[in-house]
Amino acid sequence: MKKTELGKWGENFGADYLGSQGHSVLITNFRNKFGELDIISFAGEVLYCTEVKTWNQTLHFHPLQVFNETKKNRMRKVYYYLTKSHPALSHLTVSFCLLHINEKREVSFYSHLF
């Protein structure tokens, strides 16, 4: 499977997983000039902005290492733009998250990272 196909598959798998965990998936692949939020979902009074990482090989670092300061700042900017274009979402508490899917289709969901 090509990298882009694997990424798309992972985002669909991740959206299904979040739905099975009680999230309402509102938007997928929300993009602007600053970047992208892979999945935007809602559960309780929290808006989850989730980055999906699908890796089909053993890597020598932890998936959470993708969240360097540059990535965090881009996600914040995209979120800010999201709330400007969808003002009804601005009152919700936001949680920036990572959903990691490994080669065995095991999911690790890390919420409230920043």
Automatic annotation (TrEMBL):
SUPFAM superfamilies: Restriction endonuclease-like. GO terms for molecular function: nucleic acid binding. InterPro entries: Restrct_endonuc-II-like (IPR011335), tRNA_endonuc-like_dom_sf (IPR011856), UPF0102_YraN-like (IPR003509). Belongs to the UPF0102 family. This is YraN family protein.
